[in-house]
């Protein structure tokens, strides 16, 4: 078992509000990264990052520690972060802006069908994305973040369908190394996902 230190953006990840500049993000997030390192975390995880500038600053703050880290984006079906930057561009910029690159990149709080569309955008069909993008923590609903924002009811999809959709990401990602559940998922969804992975081995 590995214990990760979970960190996130300052503002609303669904709306990309209160986005920090690179410099301010590094300063703002450094204290949490340092505390997780002191507490003995095995790795750091930046979840649902909607904007590139703050993701760069977050990565730089994490890179100042001795811990490996992962950057996870909030993406739309268009293939872009909420701020409009493509997944490929975001990976390229972060990799070139840190002295210690992230272990990999992923997406969370998004359904695999949405991510599949995002990665199928020609702008993201690059060797860089295929090699550096490694996984998903999936919502159970295929609705967009805009549709889910402030929803008053829980939206869920069938657990078997969700597992199949996650496995379908293998056509656009070289290796799915990290899978898991996010909003709307429960033990049934995770069990089906685990069973689907076992069948591949």
Question: How would you characterize this protein structure?
Answer:
Pfam families: S-methyl_trans. One of its GO terms (molecular function) is metal ion binding. One of its GO terms (biological process) is methylation. This is Homocysteine methyltransferase. The protein is of the alpha/beta class. The protein has a single domain, classed as Homocysteine-binding-like domain (TIM Barrel, Alpha-Beta Barrel), CATH 3.20.20.330. Helices cover 40% and strands 17% of the residues. It contains eight helices and six strands; from the N terminus they run E-H-E-H-E-H-E-H-H-E-H-H-E-H. It has a six-stranded parallel sheet with strand order 1-2-3-4-5-6. Helix 1 packs parallel to helix 2 and helix 7 packs across helix 8. The mean pLDDT is 92.
């Amino acid at each position: 078992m590995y214990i990760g230190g979970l960190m996130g953006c300052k503002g609303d990840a669904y709306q990309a509000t209160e986005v920090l500049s690179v410099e301010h993000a590094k300063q703002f997030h450094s204290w949490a990264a340092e505390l997780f390192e002191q507490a003995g975390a095995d790795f750091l995880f930046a979840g649902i990052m909607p904007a590139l500038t703050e993701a760069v600053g977050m990565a730089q703050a994490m890179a100042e520690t001795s811990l490996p880290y992962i950057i996870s984006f909030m993406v739309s079906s268009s293939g872009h972060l909420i701020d409009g930057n493509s997944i490929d561009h975001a990976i390229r910029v972060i990799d070139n802006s840190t002295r210690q690159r992230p272990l990999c990149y992923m997406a969370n709080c998004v359904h695999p069908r949405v991510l599949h569309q995002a990665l199928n955008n020609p702008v993201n069909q690059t060797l860089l994305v295929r090699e550096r993008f490694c996984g998903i923590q999936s919502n159970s609903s295929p609705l967009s973040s805009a549709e889910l924002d402030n929803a008053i009811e829980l939206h869920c999809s069938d657990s078997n369908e969700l597992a199949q959709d996650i496995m379908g990401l293998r056509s656009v990602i070289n290796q799915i190394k990290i899978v898991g559940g996010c909003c709307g998922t429960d033990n049934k969804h995770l069990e089906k996902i685990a069973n689907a992975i076992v069948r591949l081995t």
